[in-house]
């Protein structure tokens, strides 16, 4: 079964300094039909104004992945980490028993665009942890590069959930087919460009949910940057 959700169907919040598109219910946006998909709980497409950002705030028992599409985000947290994340980097924070952090756009002239992803962990009340990993354009071009997984396979970030996130860049002439393990869910989020997924034409911001499908097929990309989540039910 394939379930498509277009970009315009997402929730939207406008805070002046922040424009945010919500794939799932978040903050004041509530849609009982879209509370998550498997353990995937949040995909926020955030546009942050120059010099602005999120002040220090807490998280607990959530796997948080940040993927910058444009600009940069400066991170500082209560467990001693501080750095600036740029496109190509994947940032991971396992909130565990509790962590506080802030995120700001350090550029005084240009906006930052990022995807904020939350995945519910399969084990609670663990010590917080943090990691950053850079993945080159070449690693993602015409293929799906695993960037997060349960066991850190292929140099990916190890997360506290039986789930994986892969990212790919697809242009004209690129195509891919890969098997989906029995009983698994797949969630496809198209961050940029256009792409055909299992015969469904997708545009920037669209999502496709796959249930009880045997194959994932990607083709006909145009400047496409795609995130693919492999998830337990």
- Give the structural class: mainly beta
SSE order, as H and E?
A: EEEEEEEEEEEEHEEEEEEEE
- What is the arithmetic mean of pLDDT? 97
End-to-end separation: 14 Å
Strand element count? 20
Shape: globular
Number of distinct helices:
1
Q: What about the largest sheet? A: 9 strands, mixed
- What percent of residues are in strands? over 45%
Helix content: under 10%
Please compute the radius of gyration using only Cα atoms.
17 Å
Task: Catalogue the unreliable spans.
Answer: none
Task: Describe this protein's structure.
With 233 residues, the chain is mainly beta. The protein has 1 helix and 20 strands. Strands 1, 13, 14, 15, 16, 17, 18, 19 and 20 form a 9-stranded mixed β-sheet that branches. Strands 2-3-4-11-6-9-12 form a 7-stranded antiparallel β-sheet, with no helix packed on it. A hairpin with a 3-residue loop joins strand 2 (11-14) and strand 3 (18-22). It is globular and about 45 Å long. It starts with a strand and ends with a strand. The mean pLDDT is 97.
TL;DR?
The chain is an all-beta fold.
Map the helices and strands.
Elements: E1 2-5, E2 11-14, E3 18-22, E4 40-48, E5 53-59, E6 63-70, E7 73-77, E8 82-85, E9 89-94, E10 99-104, E11 112-119, E12 129-134, H1 137-140, E13 144-149, E14 157-158, E15 164-170, E16 176-179, E17 185-197, E18 200-203, E19 207-211, E20 215-231
Parallel strand pairs: 13-14
Antiparallel strand pairs: 1-19, 2-3, 3-4, 4-11, 5-10, 6-9, 6-11, 7-8, 7-10, 9-12, 13-15, 15-20, 16-20, 17-18, 17-19, 17-20
């Amino acid at each position: 079964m394939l379930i498509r959700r277009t970009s315009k169907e997402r929730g939207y919040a406008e805070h002046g300094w922040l424009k945010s598109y919500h794939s799932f219910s978040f903050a004041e946006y509530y849609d009982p039909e879209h509370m998550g998909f498997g353990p995937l709980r949040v995909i926020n497409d955030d546009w942050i104004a120059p010099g602005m950002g999120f002040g220090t705030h807490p998280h607990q028992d959530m796997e948080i992945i940040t993927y910058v599409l444009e600009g940069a985000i400066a991170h500082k947290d209560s467990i001693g980490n501080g750095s600036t994340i740029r496109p190509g980097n994947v940032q991971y924070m396992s909130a565990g028993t509790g962590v506080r952090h802030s995120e700001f756009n350090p550029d005084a002239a240009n906006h930052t665009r990022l995807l904020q992803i939350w995945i519910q962990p399969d084990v609670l009340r663990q010590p917080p942890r943090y990691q950053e990993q850079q993945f080159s354009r070449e690693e993602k071009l015409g293929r799906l590069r695993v960037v997060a997984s349960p066991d850190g396979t292929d140099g990916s970030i190890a997360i506290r959930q039986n789930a994986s996130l892969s990212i790919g860049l697809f242009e004209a002439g690129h195509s891919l087919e890969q098997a989906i393990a029995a009983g698994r869910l797949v969630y496809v989020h198209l961050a940029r460009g256009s792409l055909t997924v299992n015969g469904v034409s997708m545009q920037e911001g669209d999502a496709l949910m796959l249930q009880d499908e045997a194959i994932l097929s990607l083709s006909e990309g145009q400047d496409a940057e795609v995130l693919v989540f492999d998830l337990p039910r």
